[in-house]
Specification:
By secondary structure, the protein is α+β, with helices and mostly antiparallel strands. The protein contains 26 helices and 31 strands.
Length: 783
């Protein structure tokens, strides 16, 4: 069974590497192949081919439930229900919305049916309305900015929304937002229009909707615990609502390797089910009702409790996997089958992948199954029996070591103090906090006083644990960031893990340390002396560029800040630098003070050492002791010359006061211009003339119509223009007139909204310019 399940998994994985799904005719060919292979009884090969076909069919079905391109930017009125707990911050509420009663175009007084596209209403036919009704995705992710009413799960609303296809930033080492929403079945994103005013129709009953039940629990928790510092953690541990956990808290959990304890995962469900199994087994045996075996009764009770706990978490994908795994293990007890642990694990994996083949795209799938596999491998079939303390120490050790290659692959970060932190935190959370929290949740509606006393105890336990974890996180080298490992390094590390965790009698176990060396000493490719590598990162409607020479690194701007919890420094820049193995920034230039250029600076400075900060707005960055960027500044790194061309004089517009940087090597020149507009461009032309010529130009002011003037472009004469703009941004960048001017000077242009991160390699008098979306996208990404 193990090999068959792995063959099925391999078939699913193969499909996830495709850039485009095959045509339907290949499914017919595959069906014929399945029949032939089954007739020949090549069962392992059969599982592989069935895995390939199942992945393709499932992906085709999921892709068919996406917003059609012709409906992007349209204002559409929809009626439906909020599907789950909303995520709220100081600016907006974000939630999943399921359309129930159809979709129809917004009606204008006296105009009949019409769709508003980019602010302009145009009459549409009944056929188009019907088509939009049929083609609108079943599940949407909506944002409502500054809502004037409470947003609750289960509420039924009439919204006028503006939708777009699922589109996320695409960067090396970055989070694939499009993949996440694809696996969650989200077919479009959008926002609620303030006019016409949203209408609340009613709310689902708690008996008909798990989401309403969860909303009632979270409201009651907020009322009971008030401003308790542990409220966010208790919500996360009882109903799987991690929206209130702050970024600072997540960072502590990451540095201590305890993130898995804050989300409802397989370990929580398994431990709670195990406690119930043990208690029911002992209690039932004492009743004398032996018509039903105590083991069977305990197994059924454990499964029911696991389903209940998973329901509290909204039946999230990780909890579904846990319930399936537990159900199969308990089924073996009920059916009195003496199954091998790896066979049980393989059947559970096969069942999970049949239900959701896209689970292979989730880091949680790999971490959960491999964690169980590593524990089974290291513990089962060994001579001698460890006590509970040494057993816990060993499990912490084997999971920390066994999962480290995957943690480096997925997160480029490993906690060195995770074994110690988990040795303390696991029993506190799993054996004390979670059981008491669930008990308090169950009784708080009928015995609120007793529940409050329990929560008081839980609150103090969590505060004590938090104090300890926060201090552990402050230890130097508590965690290490590492470059993204290569797949060949992982091929050595995986057998190295197996050899290291093998029984003591296995000879040459020390060779496992040698097999870890390629993983530890990952060599990131650096430019040669005199070469330039520049990555224009995809930060939406903003700017951030990373310039690398042989031994130095410069960052020009840091993208936007959206809230206290979210900015581009945290979500794009730091992951990119970690994936490249960068430990220090030699120079950070913040061109000017607009949010879309300076917003990620604070997170970047907290996350990585920076030697020098240059900016045109030093008063906004006082805490980092910046120097003011001034025309005439220059320095030489690895035979690459950096020259500051502006500002020299103060312009009325702050955009025109942007730091303008010229990067010149023997192979070519790059010009970074910030948000300069016509006035600054004219001054640059008059001051520098032909010295402005550059092979690559980062478009001034995102390609706005007030910049990239004809005179400026005629002097610069770029071969390539890189446009940092957001997908379907509200400003209409880049403007069509500007694109026409780029064509007039025979410049090729790439837009980060369409290309993702754009990588420029300058070497041997050749410019290699490539967009990540074209080079590395998968079938679920927008092309």
């Amino acid at each position: 069974m193990v090999v068959s399940a792995l063959s099925f998994l391999a078939g699913l994985l193969l499909v996830q590497q495709l850039t485009v799904l095959p045509d339907i005719k290949w499914l017919i060919v595959g069906g014929v192949a399945v029949c032939i292979i089954a007739w020949l009884r090549y069962w392992r090969c059969l599982f592989f081919v069935v895995g390939v076909l199942w992945a393709i069919v499932f992906a085709m079905h999921r892709l068919s439930d996406r917003l059609p391109e012709q409906l992007e930017g349209a204002e559409i009125q929809i009626t439906g229900v909020i599907a789950d707990l909303p995520e709220q911050d100081e600016k907006r509420a974000r939630f999943d919305f399921i359309a129930r009663d159809g979709v129809y175009a917004a009606n204008l007084p006296g105009a009949g049916a019409a769709i508003a596209r980019d602010g302009v209403y145009a009459p549409i036919s009944a056929a188009i309305v019907a088509e939009s009704d049929r083609q609108l995705p079943a599940k949407l992710r909506l944002s409502w900015y500054y809502p004037d009413q409470p947003i609750k799960a289960g509420q039924q609303w009439v919204f006028t929304v503006k939708l777009k296809r699922v589109h996320g930033n695409m960067n090396p080492g970055g989070f694939d937002y499009e993949r996440r929403l694809f696996t969650e079945g989200i077919g479009a994103t959008g926002y609620v229009r303030p006019s016409p005013k949203p209408v609340l129709l009613g709310r689902d009953s708690a008996g008909s909707s798990i989401s309403v039940w969860r909303q009632s629990i979270t409201d009651q928790l907020s009322s009971t615990l008030g401003n308790s510092p542990s409220l966010a953690l208790i919500k996360a541990l009882t109903i799987g609502d991690g929206n209130s956990v702050t970024q600072e808290q997540w960072e502590v959990f990451r540095r201590t390797g305890t993130t898995h304890l804050v989300v409802i995962s397989g370990s929580h469900i398994g431990l709670i089910a195990g406690l119930v199994y043990f208690l029911v087994l002992k209690l039932w045996a004492r009743t004398g009702l032996l018509a039903w075996s105590p083991q069977k009764v305990a197994a059924v009770a454990a499964v029911l409790v696991a389903i209940f706990y998973s329901g509290l978490a909204g039946f999230s994908v990780p909890t579904q996997r846990s319930v399936v795994m537990l159900s199969i293990a308990m089924a073996a007890i009920i059916l009195q089958r003496n199954s091998r642990p790896f066979n049980t694990l393989s059947i559970a994996m096969f069942a999970v992948l049949i239900i959701d083949p896209l689970a292979v795209l989730s880091a949680g799938f790999w971490l959960s199954f491999l964690a169980v596999g590593v524990i089974v491998y290291a513990v089962s079939g060994r001579l001698g029996k460890l006590g509970p303390i040494w057993g816990a120490i060993k499990i912490n050790w084997v999971t920390s070591v066994g999962l480290s290659p995957l943690l480096l692959l997925f997160f480029q970060q490993v906690s060195l103090i995770a074994p110690l932190a988990n040795l303390i935190a696991v029993p506190v959370i799993s054996l004390l906090v979670v059981p008491l929290s669930l008990l308090a949740v169950i009784i708080m509606f009928i015995l609120p006083t007793s529940a409050s006393k329990l929560f008081y105890l839980i609150d103090h336990v969590l505060q004590g644990l938090w104090w300890l974890l926060a201090h552990l996180a402050e230890i130097p080298m508590a965690s290490i960031n590492h470059a993204l490992p290569s797949y060949w390094a992982l091929l050595f590390a995986v057998p190295g893990v197996l050899l290291l965790l093998a029984p003591v009698g296995i000879p040459a176990r020390w060779l496992s340390l040698v097999m870890f060396l390629p993983l530890v000493f990952t060599d990131t490719k650096q430019p040669e002396t005199g070469d330039i590598n520049m990555t224009l990162l995809d930060v939406g409607q903003g700017l951030s560029a990373v310039v690398q020479t042989s031994h130095h690194l410069l960052i020009y701007d840091t993208g936007a800040k959206f809230s206290e919890q979210s900015d581009m420094g945290k979500s794009v820049l730091l992951p990119f630098l970690r994936s490249q193995g960068v430990a220090k920034i030699d120079s950070l230039i913040v061109s000017h003070g607009d949010n879309d250029h300076i917003g990620g600076t604070a997170s970047l400075m907290r996350g990585i050492d920076t030697e020098q900060v240059l900016t045109s707005v030093p008063q906004l960055l006082n805490e980092y002791a910046p120097s003011e960027c001034v025309a005439g500044q220059s320095w030489l790194w690895d035979e690459v010359k950096f020259t500051m061309l502006a500002p020299q004089q103060a312009f009325v517009s702050e955009n025109d006061n942007s730091c303008v940087l010229k990067i010149q090597s023997k192979h070519g020149t790059v010009l970074l211009t910030g948000d300069i507009e016509a006035a600054a461009e004219s001054w640059l032309v008059e001051t520098y003339g032909e010295a402005l010529k550059a092979d690559v130009l980062v478009a001034p002011h995102h390609g706005s119509k007030t910049s990239s003037t004809a005179g400026f472009l005629q002097v610069v004469q770029p071969d390539y223009v890189l446009i940092p703009a957001g997908y379907r941004n509200q400003f209409g960048h880049p403007h069509r007139d500007v694109l026409a001017r780029y064509r007039q000077v025979n410049a090729k242009w790439l837009n980060s909204a369409d290309s993702g991160a754009i990588v420029v390699n300058v070497k041997n008098n050749v410019f290699a310019v490539q967009g990540m979306r074209q080079a590395e996208s998968k079938y679920w990404n927008i092309k």
